[in-house]
C-alpha cells in the first residue's frame, strides 16, 4: 500500500500471514487505564485487529511501553503500527522489541523522523482493503476461520468466540436457539445494539417450515436467514443470521453455517444441555446468554458467587471421589456450591458462606486434611469474585501462568489469587529482555554469589510464605539459624524482608530468579 511505503517490519515476521479485519487507534497507551476502559465494557478477543499509536502518553517510560505491548498481546491484537519514531520516542527500545519478538507480535515502524505522516492515510487504505475482502467469502473460509480461533488460548476456544469473529466479519447479528426457539448463544453487531432479535426470530418462525428467508417488517429493515445445525447427539440447533438494511449472499450463508457447524462439533458438545457442567462451561467461555438461561433453569443464583477454588488434579481416575470429598467438606460452610470438572481442573464456585467460618481457613483445612493430596498438583484460592467476569478472568490467568507455578513455588500446592497475579507479573518481566532482568537481579545482587543465602531467601519468601518454622523444616536447620540468616540477608539487601511493606521487590526478584534459573 502506498501509505506504508518506507515502513519497516521490526518484529513478528513469523506472523505476517495473519488476517487483519479491523484497525483501531490506541489513543491512551497507558495499559492500566486502557484495560479499565475495555474491561468495564466487556471481555473481547481482538484476534484480527491491528492498532495504530505513537505511544505519546508513555513516551518517557520503557516499562510502560512494555506493559502496553504485553496488554495488546493479552487482548489478542495482531500487531502495532508505530508512528513518529524519532519525534515522539527517539527509537524503539530493545526491551520492547525483545518482548514483541518473543511472542510473535508484529511491530511495523512507519518512516522515522517524518512529521508529515497522517494516521488517516493508513486508516483509509487498510479499511478499504478490509471492506473489499469482506465482500467475498472464499472456498478456504472455513479453514481460515478455524485457524483464527486456534490463536486463542485453548481454554478460550468456544462456539461463542467463533460467533463473535463471524459477527464482526459479516457486520450482522448471529443467534443460536434450541428447537423451542430459546436463545442458546447471541452475538450482537454492533455489540451495544438494542435490536430485539427475539421478536424478529418469532416473526420469522412461520417462514422456517419451508426454509425461506426475507425481510421482517419492523421499525428497522432486517433480513433474516435461517439454517438448522446438528449437535453430536443429533439434537437440532437453529442458526439465525440477522443483518440490518442488506441481505447476505447465499454462498456466504452456506459458508457461515458450515463454520458454525464445525465449531459446534469441536467445542459444542451437548451445547443445549441443561446441567451445572454446562453452566460452568458457559461462565468460563464467556457465553453470557447461555449462562443466564442455564442459571435460570437450574435455579442457581450466579450473582451470589463470591469465591472460586481451582483444584488441578493429575489423576482423573480419582476425579469423582475428589469432587465428592469437596462437596462434603464445603456443605457445612456454603449454601451455594457448584463443583464441576473441565479438563484436569475441578472448578468450585461458592456463595453464601456462613459467617461463623473464615473462608481462607476453610481452604487451608481442606488442603491440609484431604486424603487425595498426591493426586492434586495445585489449588488456587480466589476470593472476592464480584461477578462471573472475575471468575472467567481468574481461570484464564491461572491457565496463562500454567506449569510455571511449579518453577516459582517448588514446595507448595496451594496459592492465593494475589500470588497468581504476582506470578504473572514476574513471568511477563522475565521475557522483557536482559536489561529488565538485570535491573531486577540488582535487587538481590549482594547475595547472588552466595548459594546458601539465595536458597534461604527464596525458600523463606516463596515456599514458606515468610514463616520461620516452615522455612526451618524445608531447609533442615534450626529456626534460630533461619532467623540469623534472614537478618544478615536483610542487612545486605537493605530491605527488611520480614516486613510486608518492604519485601515486595525482593519477592518479585526471587520469582524472576527461579524462572530464569530453572
TrEMBL record:
Pfam families noted in UniProt: HTH_30, PucR
Highest taxon, organism lineage: Bacteria
Chain ranges passing through the membrane: none
Residues in PucR C-terminal helix-turn-helix domain copies: 454-511
Domain Purine catabolism PurC-like positions: 1-130
GO molecular function: DNA binding
Keywords of the record: DNA-binding
Keyword Cell division on entry: no
Record protein name field: DNA-binding PucR family transcriptional regulator
Lineage: Bacteria, Bacillati, Bacillota, Bacilli, Bacillales
Amino acid at each position: 500500500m502506498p501509505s506504508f511505503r518506507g515502513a519497516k517490519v521490526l518484529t513478528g515476521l513469523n506472523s505476517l500471514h495473519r488476517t487483519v479485519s479491523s484497525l483501531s487507534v490506541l489513543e491512551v497507551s497507558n495499559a492500566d487505564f486502557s484495560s479499565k476502559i475495555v474491561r468495564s465494557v466487556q471481555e473481547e478477543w481482538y484476534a484480527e485487529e491491528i492498532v495504530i499509536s505513537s505511544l505519546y502518553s508513555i513516551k518517557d517510560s520503557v516499562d510502560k511501553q512494555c506493559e502496553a505491548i504485553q496488554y495488546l498481546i493479552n487482548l489478542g491484537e495482531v500487531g502495532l503500527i508505530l508512528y513518529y519514531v524519532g519525534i515522539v520516542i527517539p527509537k524503539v527500545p530493545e526491551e520492547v522489541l525483545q518482548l514483541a519478538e518473543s511472542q510473535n507480535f508484529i511491530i511495523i515502524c512507519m518512516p522515522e523522523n517524518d512529521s508529515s505522516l497522517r494516521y488517516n492515510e493508513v486508516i483509509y487504505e487498510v479499511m478499504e482493503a478490509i471492506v473489499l475482502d469482506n465482500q467475498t467469502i472464499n472456498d478456504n473460509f472455513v479453514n481460515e476461520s478455524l485457524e483464527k480461533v486456534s490463536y486463542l488460548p485453548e481454554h478460550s476456544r468456544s462456539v461463542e468466540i467463533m460467533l463473535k469473529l463471524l459477527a464482526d466479519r459479516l457486520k450482522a447479528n448471529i443467534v443460536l436457539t434450541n428447537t423451542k426457539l430459546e436463545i442458546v448463544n447471541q452475538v450482537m453487531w454492533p455489540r451495544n445494539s438494542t435490536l430485539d432479535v427475539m421478536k424478529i426470530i418469532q416473526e420469522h418462525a412461520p417462514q422456517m417450515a419451508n426454509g425461506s428467508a426475507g425481510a421482517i417488517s419492523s421499525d428497522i429493515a432486517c433480513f433474516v436467514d435461517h439454517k438448522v445445525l446438528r449437535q453430536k447427539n443429533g439434537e437440532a440447533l437453529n442458526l439465525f443470521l440477522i443483518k440490518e438494511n442488506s441481505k447476505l449472499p447465499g454462498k456466504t450463508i452456506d459458508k457461515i453455517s458450515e463454520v458454525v457447524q464445525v465449531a459446534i462439533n469441536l467445542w459444542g458438545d451437548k451445547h443445549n444441555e441443561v446441567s451445572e457442567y454446562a453452566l460452568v462451561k458457559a461462565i468460563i467461555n464467556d457465553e453470557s446468554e447461555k449462562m443466564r438461561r442455564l442459571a435460570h433453569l437450574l435455579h442457581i443464583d450466579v450473582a451470589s458467587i463470591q469465591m472460586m477454588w481451582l483444584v488441578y488434579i493429575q489423576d482423573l481416575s480419582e476425579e469423582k471421589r475428589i469432587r465428592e470429598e469437596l462437596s462434603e467438606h464445603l456443605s457445612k460452610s456454603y449454601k451455594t456450591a457448584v463443583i464441576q470438572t473441565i479438563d484436569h481442573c475441578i472448578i468450585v464456585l461458592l456463595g453464601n458462606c456462613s459467617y461463623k467460618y473464615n473462608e481462607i481457613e476453610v481452604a487451608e483445612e481442606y488442603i491440609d486434611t484431604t486424603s487425595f493430596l498426591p493426586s492434586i498438583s495445585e489449588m488456587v484460592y480466589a476470593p472476592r469474585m464480584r461477578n462471573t467476569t472475575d471468575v472467567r478472568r481468574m481461570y484464564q490467568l491461572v491457565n496463562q501462568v500454567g506449569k510455571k507455578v511449579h518453577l516459582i513455588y517448588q514446595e507448595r500446592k496451594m496459592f492465593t489469587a494475589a500470588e497468581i497475579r504476582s506470578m504473572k507479573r514476574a513471568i511477563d518481566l522475565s521475557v522483557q529482555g536482559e536489561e529488565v532482568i538485570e535491573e531486577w537481579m540488582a535487587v538481590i545482587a549482594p547475595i547472588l554469589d552466595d548459594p546458601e543465602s539465595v536458597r534461604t531467601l527464596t525458600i523463606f519468601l516463596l515456599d514458606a510464605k515468610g514463616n520461620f518454622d516452615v522455612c526451618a523444616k524445608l531447609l533442615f536447620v534450626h529456626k534460630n539459624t533461619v532467623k540469623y540468616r534472614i537478618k544478615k540477608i536483610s542487612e545486605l539487601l537493605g530491605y527488611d524482608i520480614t516486613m510486608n511493606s518492604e519485601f515486595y521487590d525482593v519477592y518479585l526478584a526471587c520469582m524472576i530468579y527461579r524462572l530464569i534459573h530453572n
